[in-house]
Amino acid sequence: MTAHPVIPQFTAHNGFGLPAIGLGTYALNGDAGADAVAGAIEAGYRLVDSAFNYENEGSVGRGVAAADVDRAEIIVTTKLPGRHHASAQARTSIEESRSRLGLDITDLHLIHWPNPSQDEYVQAWAALVDAQQRGVVRQIGVSNFLPEHLERIERETGVRPVVNQIEVHPYFPQEEQLAYHREHGILTEAWSPLGRAKALLDESVIAEIASAHGISAAQTVLAWHVARGVVSIPKASSLAHQTSNLAAAEIVLDDAEVAAITALGRADGRLFGADPRSHEES
Ligand SMILES: NC(=O)c1ccc[n+]([C@@H]2O[C@H](COP(=O)([O-])OP(=O)(O)OC[C@H]3O[C@@H](n4cnc5c(N)ncnc54)[C@H](OP(=O)(O)O)[C@@H]3O)[C@@H](O)[C@H]2O)c1
């Protein structure tokens, strides 16, 4: 059996740790999705993303169950959708996700988007706090929250999230939000960490650094996330991509290389313009 790469861990304010690279699962559905998740876990992944809205909690759960790896080693994530923020719906949704995943306990449950104009995200957070107290979920966090949303849920419940999963890639490096998370011991998880493997992977600055290290463009971008202390969750359906992505956790870029990649950032660098101030996702 091939040795797995050694994956650095990043740690939140309460001591909860996440591996630097996990598996994104958007569009990994059905039997193929379950097989992809099981294969990734057997290749060394210990963090798996999903969401109620991806309609793949069943496949992710089946993949986790099928993998020949102790369940206790795997961190399974899911997310509460916007239409379930109100207290009663949130409670049922959290339990429903756990049933769909086929787990006794969900390891990490996040609020998917704050949906500020709906203004029910504090109720959603209180439902997650309650679920954690009841032992239904192990750790709780959020996604796409701005500092103002983070501050409000902590002020109103006394509980700080362990994770904020946000859009981060070289076109949108989010320096200020990362600094805020560091200061408060909140782990940053990057969604679309490869910029969905579009134009980003053809950038010449990335090609030059990749060539200097003898690695791929995707590995270069993932090593940039690791160097910045960001947990990335690249989605990959093939074992070849999954394996090479995980191996990027062992690649060390120097400060100048990290800065050169960060310089690709743009004010309007979001992939599809989803600004948490205004974006509403049901
Ligand atoms: N919280 C949120 O609001 C939110 C929003 C978006 C996404 N997410 C999560 O974040 C995960 C990752 O984001 P994403 O799926 O949008 O984008 P991504 O991970 O940046 O990119 C995925 C694309 O990259 C390709 N790819 C993967 N590894 C590659 C490699 N080594 N070389 C070349 N191409 C490669 C994949 O193709 P193959 O499958 O063919 O390998 C796929 O087309 C999602 O799956 C989801 O779990 C969360």
UniProtKB/TrEMBL annotation:
Domain of life of the native organism: Bacteria
Enzyme Commission code(s) on record: 1.1.1.274
Lineage of the species this protein comes from: Bacteria, Bacillati, Actinomycetota, Actinomycetes, Micrococcales
PANTHER family per record: 2,5-DIKETO-D-GLUCONIC ACID REDUCTASE, NADP-DEPENDENT OXIDOREDUCTASE DOMAIN-CONTAINING PROTEIN
Pfam families cross-referenced by the UniProt entry: Aldo_ket_red (PF00248)
Gene Ontology MF terms in the entry: 2,5-didehydrogluconate reductase activity
Gene name of the record: dkgB
Keywords of the record: NADP, Oxidoreductase
UniProt record similarity statement: Belongs to the aldo/keto reductase family.
NADP-dependent oxidoreductase domain location: 21-264
PROSITE patterns recorded: ALDOKETO_REDUCTASE_1 (PS00798), ALDOKETO_REDUCTASE_2 (PS00062)
Annotated positions binding substrate: 112
Record-given protein name: 2,5-diketo-D-gluconic acid reductase B
Site residues (Lowers pKa of active site Tyr), renumbered to this chain: 79
